[in-house]
Design goal:
Blueprint: E1 2-6, H1 19-32, E2 36-39, E3 42-43, H2 54-67, E4 73-75, E5 79-81, H3 90-96, E6 103-107, H4 115-126, E7 130-133, H5 144-153, E8 157-161, H6 162-166, H7 171-179, E9 185-187, H8 202-209, H9 218-230
Parallel strand pairs: 1-2, 2-4, 3-5, 5-6, 6-7, 7-8, 8-9
Length: 245
């Protein structure tokens, strides 16, 4: 399994507190069967994240895992806020893209999804990037499914939080969206081993297996789609969006 959304880099954003916390998160991932973690620190327009330092920070954690025998790779990326795209140079965007590829984990603006997210997806595509929409469960409204479907039509994919699909008040909404073909990858969105959701995907994938329309595609969601994203390949979902219209 591959986790495309995780705040595992230490002392950088609201994620891992220190390297020991990162190591504990890595052990959680290994125990869950995760093989690759994409480190995605927040990049927002009010942050002072040093984009140029990210490769070294990723390498520090990856090398620590290797030295401790934790068989989990850590690769680079970022969670880029919709409002922070303006002004990002091509080199900066390359370093924030997931893995070595051309996909950007795009964080919608607070509140319901709006036309500005659509414009951000279109703007990234004009620059040669595709969008992976982060945690839409934080932005639900009466038109969420329709807006996500429009973004998928524009070439985006949708990432949902594994722990919230498997448990909690958002699970019913997420399972409904998933049943409409509006989930393509899961992410842990884990921030720490000491609080919040664990660095795990398997329980969320098990819930997706309960959806008849997705049952034969769970392996694609867990491995094939995120692998293609990390390598910058085009992704064509093997199931269609069905909104019942």
């Amino acid at each position: 399994m591959i986790d495309l959304h995780c705040h595992i880099l230490p002392a950088l954003d609201d994620g891992a507190v220190d390297l020991a916390d990162s190591v504990a998160m890595g052990r959680q991932a290994f125990d869950d069967g995760i093989e690759v973690i994409c480190a995605t620190p927040h990049f927002r327009d009010d942050d002072d994240l040093e984009i140029g330092a990210l490769p070294a920070r990723v390498a520090e954690v990856d090398e620590k895992f290797t030295s401790l025998g934790i068989d989990v790779r850590v690769v680079g990326g970022g969670e880029v806020a919709e409002a922070a795209l303006t002004g990002l140079e091509a080199e900066e965007l390359d370093r924030l893209a997931l893995g070595s590829g051309r996909w950007v984990l795009l964080e919608p603006a607070p509140g319901p999804l709006t036309d500005s997210l659509r414009d951000a997806v279109d703007g990234l595509r004009r620059r040669g990037y595709r969008s992976l929409i982060a945690h839409p469960e934080r932005h639900t409204a009466s038109d969420t499914a329709e807006r996500l479907a429009d973004l998928v039509d524009r070439g985006a994919l949708v990432q949902m939080t594994a722990g919230l699909i498997s448990d909690g008040p958002a699970s019913a909404t997420l399972l409904e969206l998933a049943g409409q073909g509006l989930v393509h990858v899961l992410g842990s969105d884990a921030h720490s081993s000491r609080s919040g959701p664990p660095l795990a995907l398997s329980a969320g994938l098990e819930r997706l297996w309960e959806i008849a329309a997705l049952r034969e595609h769970v392996e694609w969601i867990a491995r094939d789609a995120p692998t293609a994203v990390l390598h910058g390949h085009p992704v064509e979902p093997p199931y269609a969006v069905t909104l019942g219209r």
